[in-house]
Amino acid sequence: MSVGGKKDSYDFYRQEDDLDWHVDQRLNIREIRMIYSSISHYQRNWEKYNGGRPPEEMDFLNWYKTSLFTMITDYNYYHHEVDTPSENDT
């Protein structure tokens, strides 16, 4: 039987990281909202959950949450419907 998983503390910054590499991912609005909600929950409970996590992780979560909020705002702006009164409405 094999046992997987990283045993050492996670190293966010490795000298050998290729920072030109990137990935694209397609998410719908519900997935964006779910990620935003999950990050918000984690941040509200940071002290309980973090277990000595590096402060850079919270910085990243703040940045990512702002990016997600931008996506949600963009969606809301372009999918906003306004009822316009008709001639019969008085």
Structural features, described:
The protein is mostly helical and 90 residues long. It has a domain of 50 residues. Helices cover 49% and strands 0% of the residues. The chain contains three helices and no strands. The protein starts with 28 loop residues before the first helix and ends in a 12-residue tail after the last helix.
Write the layout of secondary structure elements.
Layout: H1 29-44, H2 46-49, H3 55-78
Helix pairs in contact: 1-3
Relevant terms:
mainly alpha
As a whole number of angstroms, the C-alpha radius of gyration is 20 Å
The count of strands amounts to 0
In helices, the fraction of residues equals 40-55%
Spell the H/E element sequence. Answer: HHH
- Profile the largest sheet: none
Average pLDDT level: 85
Principal-axis shape: elongated
In DSSP terms (H or I, runs of 4 or more residues), the helix count works out at 3
Low-confidence stretches: none
Structural class: mainly alpha
Q: What's this, in brief?
A:
The protein has 90 residues and is mainly α.
